[in-house]
Design a protein that fits this description.
This is histidine kinase. The protein is of the alpha+beta class and 480 residues long. It is built from 11 helices and 12 strands. Strand 4 and strand 5 form a beta hairpin.
């Protein structure tokens, strides 16, 4: 829910950012264009009214010096009609002597444009004025030009004309620009919402899947195809989910297998205890036999629990194996010394051929455990009086420890499974021998941990050969 709100706000943030950026660019461009257009139009108008005013001033010069008001009026009216404006002729004191509209005669003017001409240095001037009328007013341009006669300023011509058309044209341009701007903003919002939606859609899907997975449904996948960072993230996420699901399945299988294996010796013990408990006058030998069986089951449980603990320790120690440089012969000797008494009990001979000795970089305790499991199996699954041979050999950067027996062997169908947890070829026999089916699984885990492998060859009734192959230290040499 929170993520949805976040994505929603991201979408709007993108839209606003786009909008602000485009707004700034568009605003600057449109202000620049409209002021350029306005400047151009005003400039053109000023040039034309200046022209008309200057010409009129030239025409007025001789008439003003002669005080010929009639001629000046005629020129003012004609030029005013031709150019669509109003002409005033002022004397040297700024008093209107002629008005083409005939209503300001005798009025003294003191507008800036007039003073510029009569009292300043300029021969012409102009300015803008807002004229109020019954329609609310309009903008006009005042243009003045000095009337010179015999090199002396004798008066001025003031020309006024409306420039409301230019103001209106500029205002219309601005209004149109604003309309286009608002329209563009609308399109930008729609496009940015659409594009951000395209970007956030897979993230939303990913979030939904993550929520479902965190609620326990490990089968969920995002299934986002394509390229790009988000698609790659989703594909990696799916891979991770697959692995988690796999691990979870393995964990629950392991728990159920382990519980099952632990229940079996407990059930046997319960039967043995109950038969002693509920039977009267049980002979002492029977008691002893039953207690011996119970003791055997306790040993079985003990070894199962030891193996389970070892496996779980290997899970957590996966990155912390304590590597040491050791000679393979020393590890094998330690294993044989520990297992020889069991072999002797059953008259089994353990032979060794370690003439091809080599050094390994390994975790000695773990490697010893692996070799021990292989030799123990060889003894366990070989008949009385049989033979077990342990050979070492190294070749092409690999060292091999071969454990061979002439025992019961196994058929081909089992070879692919014996490294699985709790897998035993003959469960009844394993019960007799106290096997739990974890030994070879542990061997394989240790081999993989060292970057090696374990191979098996076996023939039913003839015997088996297990070979533990591990990578050698680079500079290893034959050691006597
Ligand atoms: N050398 C061998 N000869 C014949 N069968 C073997 C040999 N080694 C292993 N097996 C078969 O493979 C199975 C799995 O062996 P593994 O060592 O994993 O379990 P286990 O010996 O039954 O019990 P434990 O966990 O105590 O070692 C055994 O039950 C046995 O059937
Ligand atoms: Mg075993």
């Amino acid at each position: 829910m929170r993520t949805n709100k976040l994505l929603y706000s991201i979408r709007w943030q993108f839209a606003v950012i786009y909008l602000v950026l485009v707004g700034i660019v568009f605003g600057v461009v449109s202000v620049a264009i409209s002021s350029l257009v306005e400047d151009y139009l005003v400039d053109q108008r000023i040039k034309s009214v200046m022209n008309v005013t200057n010409n009129t001033a030239v025409q007025m010069a001789s008439y003003l010096s002669d005080y010929d008001a009639g001629s000046m009026y005629n020129i003012a009216v004609k030029n005013g009609n031709d150019s669509g404006g109003r002409f005033l002729v002022l004397n040297r004191s700024g008093i209107v002597v002629v008005d083409s509209f005939s209503d300001m005669n005798g009025v003294k003017l003191s507008d800036r444009e007039v003073n510029d001409i009569l009292y300043g240095q300029n021969s012409s001037s102009y300015g803008f004025h807002l004229i109020n009328d019954e329609n609310g007013g309009f903008w006009a341009v005042y243009c003045t030009s000095s009337i010179i006669h015999n090199g002396e300023i004798i008066g001025a011509v003031l020309y006024s004309s409306s420039i409301q058309d230019v103001v209106d044209a500029t205002a219309m341009l601005q209004a149109r620009t604003l309309t286009i701007f608002l329209f563009a903003c609308g399109i930008i919002i729609v496009i940015s919402l659409f594009t951000t939606n395209q970007i956030t859609k897979p993230i939303k899907k990913l979030t939904d899947v993550a929520i479902k997975i965190s609620n326990g449904d490990l089968s969920q996948r995002a299934n986002i195809k394509g390229k790009g960072e988000v698609a790659e993230l989703a594909q990696t996420f799916d891979m991770m989910c697959g692995r988690i699901q796999n691990m979870d399945q393995q964990r629950s299988e392991f728990v159920s297998d382990a519980s099952h294996e632990l229940k079996t010796p407990l059930a046997s013990m319960k039967i043995l205890v109950e038969s002693m408990l509920y039977q009267d006058n049980v002979p002492e030998e029977v008691y002893k036999e039953f207690l011996g069986d119970i003791n055997g089951e306790i040993d079985r449980m003990n070894s199962l629990i030891t193996d389970l603990l070892l496996l779980s320790k290997m899970d957590s120690d996966i990155v912390t194996i304590n590597l040491e440089r050791v000679r393979i012969s020393s590890i094998i000797r330690k294993c044989i010394t520990a297992l020889e008494p069991i072999a002797k009990e059953r008259n089994i001979r353990i032979k060794t051929d370690m003439s091809d000795n080599f050094e390994l970089e390994c975790d000695p305790l773990k490697l010893r455990q692996a070799i021990n499991n292989l030799i123990e199996n060889a003894i366990k699954y070989t008949g009385d009086g049989g033979h077990v041979t342990v050979t070492t050999k190294h070749h092409a950067g690999e060292g091999a420890i071969r454990v061979e027996d002439d025992g019961i062997g196994m058929s081909e169908e089992h070879l692919g499974h014996i490294f699985e947890r709790f897998y035993r070829v003959d469960k009844a026999r394993s019960r007799e021998t106290g096997g739990t089916g974890l030994g070879l699984h542990i061997v394989r885990r240790i081999a993989l941990m060292h970057g090696g492998r374990v191979d098996v060859e076996s023939e039913e009734g003839k015997g088996s050969v297990f070979t533990l192959v591990l990578p050698l230290v680079q500079d290893t040499e034959d050691i006597e």
